[in-house]
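Project outcomes to date are best conveyed with an example. Our students and postdoctoral researchers have been running inverse folding experiments weekly, and each run begins with a structure described purely in tokens. The record below, which covers 296 residues, was selected by the lab manager from last quarter's runs and is presented without edits.
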């Protein structure tokens, strides 16, 4: 199984896509339609998220196993420490290995019900993401990713402390980081500069949400943990009653963001898909990220 790092080592930038596990058969059909449509564009890798407390653990394992065995995609499975003992985590990691998944995104995870609430570890579990990274690396030949926060984790005291925690995850064995959502290229670039100044050269990948509806804009604001810049709101809010115009302007704004990031040398863009493919396909086409072999 190819690793994410191997897929990032080409001479041209690439893209990746993220999905969430289906809740029912109808969701599963939607998910797999999107997976098959994006598979044709040869993303560097694809990932499937993992619900808090195991709420979607079985769906993640089932879906990622199917990707590993039935598609040409490079799969990356998410894993969180929420409500899991070390024994349970070992079991899940073993399941991933058994179905041929070599790439894991190791996350501490958010407190169930309140992402900004107080973290309470499982009495037989882990407290920090760096511990989960070390556990995954101890159990096999895995490529491990971690999360990064352009505006700092909500529970970090300041950006310097947050950068220190990220670097500790890399020193524990993480191979790359994926940045949570942000609004302006400079927000990501400053994160990259902070990590480099701390003596760490691991690749950081920007997380990108296609802004197609007012809902996706609201979700970006929620997940970023930061206020959207007035310049972006002034572009999009007046169009909230015109779905077609909002979508067109939102994708233009995201294209401009991605163009700047690519000009600054990012090796890949990581797209959150909401289990749909159309907007991501449009964006990677605009950005010239579709490999020649996939566009024939």
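After processing, the design step wrote out the following sequence:
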């Amino acid at each position: 199984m190819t690793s994410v790092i191997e897929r990032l080592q080409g001479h041209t930038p690439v893209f990746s896509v993220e999905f969430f596990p289906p809740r029912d058969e109808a969701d599963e059909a939607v998910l797999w339609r999107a997976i098959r449509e994006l598979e044709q564009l040869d993303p560097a890798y694809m990932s499937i998220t993992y619900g808090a407390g195991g709420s979607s653990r079985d769906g993640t394992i089932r879906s990622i196993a199917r990707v590993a065995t039935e598609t040409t995609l490079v799969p990356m499975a998410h894993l969180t420490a929420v409500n899991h003992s070390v024994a349970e985590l070992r079991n899940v990691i073993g399941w991933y290995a058994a179905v041929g998944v070599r790439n894991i995104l190791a996350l501490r995870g958010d407190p169930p019900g309140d992402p900004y609430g107080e973290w309470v570890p499982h009495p037989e579990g882990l407290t920090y993401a760096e511990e989960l990274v070390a556990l995954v690396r101890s159990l096999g030949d895995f490529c491990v990713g971690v999360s990064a926060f352009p505006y700092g984790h909500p529970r970090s005291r300041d950006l310097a402390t947050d950068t220190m925690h990220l670097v500790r995850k890399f020193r524990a064995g993480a191979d790359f980081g994926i940045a949570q959502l942000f609004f302006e290229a400079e927000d990501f670039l400053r994160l990259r500069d902070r990590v480099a100044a701390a003596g760490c050269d691991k690749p950081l990948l920007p997380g990108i949400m296609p802004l197609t509806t007012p809902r996706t804009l609201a979700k970006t604001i929620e997940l970023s943990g930061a206020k959207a810049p007035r310049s972006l709101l002034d572009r999009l809010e007046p169009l909230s009653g015109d779905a077609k115009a909002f979508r067109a302007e939102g994708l233009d704004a995201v294209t401009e963001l991605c163009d700047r990031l690519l000009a600054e040398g990012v090796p890949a863009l990581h797209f959150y898909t909401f289990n749909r493919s159309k907007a991501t396909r449009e964006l990677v086409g605009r950005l010239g990220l579709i490999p020649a072999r996939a566009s024939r």
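The mean pLDDT is 91. The radius of gyration is 18 Å. The training component of this project remains on track.
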